[in-house]
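ok so i was messing around last nite and threw this chain in just to see what happens. nothing serious, just curious
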Amino acid sequence: MNTIGKVSSAEALQLIAHVVNETGSAGKAVVAAVVGPEGELISFIRMDDANAGSGTIAQNKAYTAARQRKFTREIGQKMQDENVSPAYWGDDRITGFGGGVPIVQQGKVIGGMGVSGLTSLEDEALAVAAIKAVFG
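result:
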């Protein structure tokens, strides 16, 4: 039997809480989403004063990171370097905005996290820090 590990709902809430604590203490507001390896939403928050449009973007970042098993920044770099249209992936939810990070445990992608609302580098750093805090 093939079993696939997946981010638990408790872990997803911990990831979200980490981002909220980091940004809230700095007076910033973001949107964060956590998905399972198939890209289905497990946890989501749009902090007060965060841009409403960032909600869709954060979810798509998490989805892309999980489904493509890569940082979304890498997808965006491929789009730029090779002049590849997002249509290449045949999936309207694939995005190249930085800030989506796959969650990997024991060499397997068990989910993805997307953060949106700051610069792409800041979004990515928040996701990486949250994953490290929760999963080591």
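not much to say yet. The domain at 9-135 is CATH 3.30.450.150 (Beta-Lactamase).
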